[in-house]
């Protein structure tokens, strides 16, 4: 779930993070969600706090499901 309102600036595979979503919340604050099994948003989408943006997983350099 999105930590706060914002705009998705990245939603794709990102090296050791595997499937990854990055949300820009403004004022220089961004959140990164990595190792996801499935993405539920695309870049340039606006999201609201609590919105489901992806599903946890173990993509990238991970040894078990986590966020």
Give a structural overview:
- This protein is mostly beta strands.
- It has a single domain, classed as Glucose Permease (Domain IIA) (Distorted Sandwich).
- Helix content is 0%, strand content 48%.
- It has a five-stranded antiparallel beta sheet with strand order 4-1-2-3-5, with no helix packed on it.
- A hairpin with a 5-residue loop joins strand 1 and strand 2 (19-26).
- The mean pLDDT is 95.
Strand-helix topology:
Layout: E1 6-13, E2 19-26, E3 29-39, E4 46-47, E5 54-56
Antiparallel strand pairs: 1-2, 1-4, 2-3, 3-5
List keywords for this structure.
0% helix, 5 strands, 67 residues, five-stranded antiparallel sheet, mainly beta, Glucose Permease (Domain IIA)
Question: What would the CATH topology be?
Answer: Glucose Permease (Domain IIA)
Question: Quick one: CATH class?
Answer: Mainly Beta
CATH superfamily: Glucose Permease (Domain IIA)
| Uncertain runs | none
Helical content band: under 10%
Query: What separation lies between the terminal Cα atoms?
Result: 11 Å
Largest sheet: 5 strands, antiparallel
What's the CATH architecture name?
Distorted Sandwich
Total discrete domains: 1
Number of E-state strands: 5
Read across the widest sheet, the strand sequence of neighbours is 4-1-2-3-5
Please state the CA-atom Rg, rounded to the nearest Å: 11 Å
